[in-house]
Amino acid sequence: xxxxxxxxxxxxxxxxxxxxxxxxxxxxxxxxxxxxxxxxxxxxxxxxxxxxxxxxxxxxxxxxxxxxxxxxxxxxxxxx
Length: 80
Hints:
Layout (H helix, E strand, L loop, with lengths): L6 H19 L3 E6 L3 E6 H31 L6
Antiparallel strand pairs: 1-2
């Protein structure tokens, strides 16, 4: 029960539930033109999930790079 008091866990659960609702409501098919690669026919929910996961991955990479630069600066080496 103590674990349910963690605000990060609650926020993550709310985010997953809201994303699930949005993905469930968008089940129509759509044709996407992917840059220069051609067309792709998929459901809107699949495209939204891919965009969501890609954004999460990019955010995680940016945060880890920012965090490592911040920690590197705290060491006092002066090299950046």
